[in-house]
Design goal:
Distance between the termini: 25 Å
Oligomer: single chain
Number of helices: 6
CATH superfamily: Vaccinia Virus protein VP39
CATH class: Alpha Beta
Order of helices and strands: HHEHEEEHEHEHEE
Helix content: 25-40%
Length: 236
């Protein structure tokens, strides 16, 4: 991971970050309106979005332990674990939903991360990826978390998912508003977002892709036995 916890926390605690979170959350809610009785895992920095599903039976945020500043994580939203992203300290098939935000683009090993996501998802589970669009403005401004790490085109995301036994089913996009002066947009941001979705859909700041496990494909090869160990656990 290349993003620092302090930078993520400061961004989402700012007026501009709150506006950006609302715009992304609207697309997440469009894909997953309610999740009654579901268990939800947030990977990367997903805690700002897990509040969308209060009816879920379980919501856990997992932050990579080697993320700079992770040991100083303060005021987590819900139960938060710090652990290695490539060896998640979780049983097989233990979650119905996985939300990956600020994770894939900054992962040290995207292949192993997706393999772990596949492992912990139930056979009918669903994954949502939120990743920076490589041609969008947000990927080219490093004052926001979406300007760090490896951005993707939509085709690249879907090919990466297919190689790791996921099938992309539904697609959304968010952050059509410019990252410059975001804190001043306020109530105008949703209207500008709507215009962007119609007029320039390829210029979104982030792609939001929902995928399902492709249980009819071959099982992942090269799995190794590793010791999965939780490093820090913070109570809700």
């Amino acid at each position: 991971m290349t993003i620092e916890v302090h930078g993520l926390s400061a961004f989402y605690g700012s007026r501009g970050g709150e506006t950006a979170a609302r715009l992304v959350a609207a697309r997440l809610a469009a894909l997953w309106p309610r999740l009654p009785g579901q268990s939800v895992l947030g990977l990367g920095w997903a805690a700002p979005y897990l509040g969308l599903w209060p009816e879920a039976t379980r919501r856990i945020a997992l932050v990579p332990a080697h993320l700079p500043g992770a040991q100083d994580l303060a005021r987590p939203v819900g139960p938060t674990l710090l652990a290695a992203e490539e060896t998640l300290p979780l049983p097989d098939a233990s979650f119905d939903r996985v939300l990956l935000v600020h994770g894939l683009e900054a992962a040290d090993n995207a292949r192993r991360l997706l393999r772990e996501v596949w492992r912990v998802l139930r056979d009918d589970g669903r994954l949502i990826l939120v990743v920076p669009n490589r041609v969008g403005m947000w990927a080219h401004l490093d004052r926001t978390p979406f300007g760090h790490g490896q951005p993707y085109s939509r085709g690249q995301i879907e090919r990466l998912l297919a190689r790791h036994l996921f099938r992309a089913d539904r697609r959304e996009a968010a952050l059509f508003v410019p990252p410059y002066g975001l804190r001043f947009l306020g109530a105008a941001a949703p209207a500008l977002e709507g215009m962007g979705r119609v007029l320039c859909p390829r210029l979104a700041g982030v792609f939001v892709v929902e995928a399902a496990k492709d249980i009819f494909a071959a099982m992942p090869a090269g799995a190794v036995e590793v010791e999965r160990q939780v490093m820090v656990a913070s109570p809700a």
